[in-house]
Design goal:
Helix content is 30%, strand content 24%. It is of the alpha/beta class and 364 residues long. Strand 12 and strand 13 form a beta hairpin. The termini are far apart.
């Protein structure tokens, strides 16, 4: 069932929802949470499609907030709420639950929380998702304050690595990012490979596309957990293409060149293929909706890398910045500088980010 409401109110929307459920013969809601999507007119379709896919695993009320403040002073001075209510699984993108698309015109666009609050499911968790540009501090945003979980996506911003740095400075319990969700299979596979082979890891390398926040987070997670130097190398992709960990017995290598099938090599064991397919946004969102408690592992990883991902601007490198890359590739000229920190009794200070076109290191 699809209901269009023009120049309406939150109370009228609630009344139409009750009537629609009764007409469909299902007065009970049976939904486990409210998912609030904050987006614009151009991106709301893709976001709603992903949320509808996730709702098949987590039946929910989906509220899509589309702000339309207007361009002219006259449009901005007006305020109007238009709504589209979709109930029932037979409606295109309704998913398993209820979907309400809220278009906020004029001044009302700045007060979305006052429209959303009466539409939240009673006694049910609230999750807010910003598919594109998120506020600087999601936890302090009026809509973010209503939620137990706040989901952002650094990969959708103009400066993905800079967005991670911002997420680190404004982190609050309940924050997470889809760039972190994308590396869950990588973290699981790497942790399992280390458990299988009890050995000392001396260093690690993460290879992935330039400006890929998931590659950065994976490198920071390894550096924070292993407390060893971790290099970040640029590859053609897609996404993360490989992780190599140097041990006293040889190299543990997880290599994925085609974006779907990876090869795992562990010293003393035969090489084997593992599935590491790049997942859709609906799958990522469904994973995040499985947990409503704070993600401590994400907090530790993103906070560990704040000094490393906020270094020199890659767009304006110093003339000496490109020099280390060929020296490291030769293997000899830079050896004194790379081994010197290991001889110090205290851990080496983290180095800042270098030009992204060269090798970057995350150490602690």
């Amino acid at each position: 069932m699809n209901i269009d409401l023009t120049d309406t109110t939150s109370s009228r929307i609630n009344a139409e929802l009750v009537k629609a459920r009764r007409s469909l013969g299902s007065p009970a809601m049976g939904m486990v949470l409210t998912l609030v999507i904050v987006t614009d007119e151009g991106n709301h379709y893709d976001a709603l499609k992903a949320a509808s896919g996730a709702s098949k695993e987590h039946p929910s009320r989906i509220l899509v907030v589309v702000r339309r403040p207007g361009r002219s002073p006259r449009d901005r001075a007006q305020h109007r709420l238009d709504a589209e209510v979709r109930v029932g699984s037979d409606v295109g993108e309704a998913g398993s639950g209820e979907t309400i698309i809220l278009r906020l015109h004029g001044e009302l666009a700045s007060h979305a929380h006052s429209v959303v609050l009466p539409l939240l499911l009673p006694d049910a968790p609230v999750v807010v998702w910003w598919p594109e540009d998120a506020p600087e501090n999601p936890a302090e945003d009026p809509l973010g304050k209503l939620a137990q979980r706040r989901i952002t996506d650094a990969a959708a911003t103009e400066d993905p690595v800079g967005a991670l740095s911002l997420r680190a400075t404004t982190y609050a319990p309940g924050d997470t990012d889809l760039a972190w969700t994308r590396i869950t299979p990588w973290r699981s596979m790497l942790a399992a490979s280390v458990d299988q082979k009890q050995t000392t890891i001396n260093s690690a390398v993460v290879e992935g596309e330039e400006y890929n926040p998931s590659s950065e987070l994976l490198a920071l997670w390894l550096a924070e957990r292993l407390r060893v130097p971790v290099e970040r190398r640029i590859s053609e992709g897609p996404g993360i293409t490989g992780v190599r960990m140097e041990t006293v017995e040889g190299q543990i290598c997880l290599d994925r060149a085609n974006g779907s099938l990876a090869e795992l090599a562990v010293p003393g064991q035969p090489d084997r293929h593992v599935a590491l397919q790049r997942r859709s946004t609906a799958e990522l969102l469904a994973e995040e909706l499985r947990r409503l408690d704070p993600d401590e592992a994400y907090a530790e990883a993103v906070s560990f890398g704040i000094n490393k991902i906020s270094g020199p601007d890659p767009a304006h490198p110093t003339p000496a910045a490109p020099a280390p890359a060929p020296a490291e590739a030769s293997g000899q000229a830079e050896e004194p500088s790379t081994t010197e920190p290991a001889a110090e009794p205290a851990p080496a200070k983290p180095k800042g980010r270098s030009n992204r076109s060269n090798t970057k290191k995350a150490t602690k």
